[in-house]
Amino acid sequence: MLPVQFVVDKLASATGVYAFVLDRAYKKVASAGVPPLFTQLVEREVAYQRWLRDALDDARKQVRIAQEPSGCTAVLVPLSDGWCVVPGLRTTKNIQSVGDVEASLGAAVPIVEPSHVQSLAYLVPVLFSAIQPVLEQRAVFEHTVSDMTVLLDYLSQVLFVLDPELLLQRTTEFFVHKLRLGNCSIVIDSFVGRYHHNPSLLNTYACIESLTKAHVQQTKTMLLSANLAKDVMFAKISVDKLPPCLIALPVGSGAVILFADTSLNDVVSLASGLVEKFGKAWEQCLLYQSAHSLSITDPLTGIFNRAFFSRALARATESAQFVSVCMIDVDNFKKYNDTQGHLAGDKVLQSVAATVKATLGEACVFARYGGEEFVFFTNTKDAVSLAESCRAAVEQGCGVTISLGVASGAGLSSEKLLQEADAALYRAKNSGKNKVEAVVLGEDKENL
Prior knowledge:
The chain has a five-stranded antiparallel β-sheet, with helices on both faces. A five-stranded antiparallel β-sheet has the order 7-6-10-9-8, sandwiched between helices. The longest helix has 29 residues, at 268-296. The chain is α+β, with helices and mostly antiparallel strands. The protein has helices spanning 2-15, 37-44, 46-58, 96-105, 114-130, 132-137, 142-158, 164-179, 202-219, 268-296, 306-318, 333-340, 342-360, 383-397, 414-430, and strands at 19-23, 28-32, 64-67, 73-79, 82-89, 183-188, 191-194, 223-225, 245-251, 254-260, 322-330, 365-370, 373-378, 402-410, 436-440.
C-alpha cells in the first residue's frame, strides 16, 4: 500500500483537505490530513455509516460529488481496489445541520469554494492514475518514485489554476526548472506561452513553434532533434542563439516544445507524463472558462447578463466611490417585433448591444438587463455624455432609437441608483423618447 499512501499524502499536502482510501470491504487502508467532523460522525452514527456505503456503491464506476447527511460535500472516487474519499467539504456558511453538528462536537468545518470541489473531483483520479503502473508491477523503483514525485508536484502547482494564461506561465516555469531546460514553449489553441521572452529571438522561436506544432499535430508523435543547426526541418531558420536540443510533444490541438543545451533522451518519459498531465489540466481550465463565460454572458447579445451586472454594481457601490448608472430602453420595440417578427427583433437587439458596447469602450460595465432593456455603470463623471453618444450612435446605425436614464452619486446603494435611473428612463420615454434624462443625487449635485 506504499504507493496509495504516497498519493494520499501528496493530495492532502497539496490541497489541505483530509482524504482516505477504503478497500472493497469498506476498510480504511490509507489516510492523510486533519480528520474533519465526517470521521467522528462515521464512528458514532449508524445512519452515517449506511449513507457512506450507499454513496460508495453508487460511485463504483465514476467520480461522484455527494452531499453528506450533515449538509457538507464529499468527493467519492472509484479505484481499482476500492475508493478514495475526500469528505467534509463545506461550500456555504448557511447549513443549519452543519452548525448543529459543530456545536455538538465542538469542532469547526472549513469553508471551500465550489470550484475547488470540482477541481478535487478532477485531480483525485488523475493522481491515482499516475501510480497505476506501479500498482500493477507491485514494486516501487527509485526512478519511478522520483518521476511520480515530479508529476504530483506539478499537479499540486496547477490544482486550482483556472486561468489559461496563468496555467501556461506556471507550466513553462515548472518544466524549465524541473527538467533543467533552456526554454519551454507551449502553443495550443490561440494561446502561446514561453518561459523566456527575448524580443530579439521572438521571430526565431515563432518559426520553430509553427513548424514543430504542424509536424506533431500531423503525425501525432513526438519530434526529437539532437541538433537544431543540423536538422533539415529547421535549415531555413537561424538557430545559433537557441539551445541546440529540442523535444516537441503533441497536446490537444497544439504542442509543448522543450529546448535544452544537452540531450533530452533521459527525460523523455517524464516529459511525456508531464505533458499528459498538462493536457488534462488545460481541458479542465477551458471547461471552467466556458462554463464561467456562459454563467455571466447573455446568450443573444454576447454582453454581460443581469446577474453579473448586479454583482459588479453592488461591489462598486460598496466602495463608496462615485457611480453612475444608465438604463437604456429600445423605443417602440414591441411594435417593431409585432410588425417585423421576432427574428428581426433579435437582430435589432444584437445591433444595439454591439453599437453601445463599441461606443462605451472599456470604461463601463455594460449588460442586458432584460427584454429590450440594457444598462451600464461607470465610476467616471461623464456618464451623461456617454449616454448621449450611445443614443446618437444607435439612431445613426441601428434603424431604431433608444431612450436613456442616468442616475449618479456617491455613497448610494445599487438598488437606489437603479431605481433612480429607471425613473429617469421613464421620464425620457414619456417626454418624446430618443433622449437622455439624468439626475444627480446626494452631495455630488454641487460638484457637477
